[in-house]
Amino acid sequence: MRFAPAPSPQATGELALLEARDVSRVFRIGLGLLRGKRALRAVDGVSLAVRSGEVLALVGESGCGKTTLARMLLGLLPPSTGEVRIDGRPVGVLPRREIAALIQPVFQDPYASLNPRKSIGSIIALPLRVQGMSRSDTWRRKVEEMMERVGLARDLYDNYPSQLSGGQRQRVAIARALINHPRMVICDEPTSALDVSVQSQILNLLQDLRRDLGLTYLLISHNLAVVEHMATRVAVMYLGRIVEEAETESFFRAPLHPYSAALLGSVLTPEPGLGVPAAELGAAFPDPLNPPAGCRFHPRCGRALVRCTTVVPPSVATADGFVACHLHDGQEHPAQQG
Ligand SMILES: Nc1ncnc2c1ncn2[C@@H]1O[C@H](COP(=O)(O)OP(=O)(O)OP(=O)(O)O)[C@@H](O)[C@H]1O
Ligand code: SF4
Ligand SMILES: [Mg+2]
């Protein structure tokens, strides 16, 4: 697979475009008629900031909470606790229309995310209607320009999603996301449902659009080769928490968290929905209804210390991010766990 290397704009130091402050999300899970309900903490105390011009990649195994976090950042799901801010303003008080004007999603499955009964033109134009733009002749011109920009022939305007290939459908989803010139796009596994042969075309398109339109991305991807080429920064999520954040170059050169190191040592899979495999980790991904005490990674960690089983590791600042691991907490490391 070939990718155009991403230019790496530095964080500007200005106000974060998108920010999560100690955000958690609990789902109540029914366990059956007589067993009642349990709380599943899908996202647990996540703080994250995306600055203008960045491509922040969010990586972690299937079920660790990436999509739940993305839905909260998009204002589609209210956090149980904590706050999301877009452009400095709390998402909870922003009208849906204002959020949509600033930040747009591109989801994994272009088959599920496009209304099969609407024509391509009206699907792409939907955000214009939502923003109250009423003249359909203006829509048509704008939509056709955007179709051309994302590599779709204008004469597909009156076609329906079922008449398009997977790659073309994802181009429609991207055109719809960009038609109102948002500042940021959250791409949740944007290519993992596509044939391998078209994945790099879509990734190169996302790269070009970012450069030409000055976009900021949050990129969720299980493919670390994609992350290395596209991201300027990487955040690693494990069982609802961010365990390491670093600039892309230093992350791939010298990951600090044992889980990050395990991810980089894994064999990549192209299969959608499976997240990042970590085949060499002894124990399986833990039950999110019963997360391990202390460091949640400790049952699978080959470097676990005695305190890892009981004490939650603090987030320690590093040169270009942070790491939440007792190996880096500045204390002595007496005996390894048995
Ligand atoms: N609406 C929901 N109701 C109950 N549980 C949910 C809901 N959405 C997600 N979960 C649970 O929350 C956890 C996190 O799910 P999420 O979809 O955010 O993970 P993910 O990292 O996006 O996984 P994948 O890589 O497979 O897309 C999982 O245990 C999942 O089963
Ligand atoms: S805190 Fe302990 S168990 Fe967790 S990753 Fe670090 S060394 Fe491993
Ligand atoms: Mg997901």
List keywords for this structure.
338 residues, alpha/beta, 8-stranded mixed beta sheet, 4-stranded antiparallel beta sheet, 12 strands, binds adenosine-5'-triphosphate, binds iron/sulfur cluster, binds magnesium ion
Q: Which ions, cofactors or small ligands are bound in this entry?
A: adenosine-5'-triphosphate, iron/sulfur cluster, magnesium ion
Main pleated-sheet profile = 8 strands, mixed
Please bin the fraction of helical residues.
25-40%
- Series of secondary-structure elements, N-terminal to C-terminal: EEEHEEHEHHHHEHEHEEHHEE
The end-to-end span amounts to 43 Å
Mean pLDDT: 88
What's the total count of β strands?
Answer: 12
User: Spans of 5+ residues with little confidence (pLDDT < 50)?
Assistant: 1-12
Helix/strand/pairing class, anyone?
Answer: alpha/beta
The strand order across the widest sheet is 6-7-8-3-9-10-12-11
The helix tally amounts to: 10
Binned strand content: 15-25%
What spatial form do the alpha-carbon principal axes imply? globular
Rounded to the nearest angstrom, the radius of gyration is 21 Å
Account of the 3D structure:
Helix content is 28%, strand content 22%. The chain contains 10 helices and 12 strands. The strands form 2 sheets. It has an 8-stranded mixed β-sheet, with helices on both faces. Strands 2-1-4-5 form a 4-stranded antiparallel β-sheet. The protein is globular, with a radius of gyration of 21 Å. It starts with 17 loop residues before the first strand and ends in a 14-residue tail after the last strand. Bound molecules: adenosine-5'-triphosphate, iron/sulfur cluster and magnesium ion (MG).
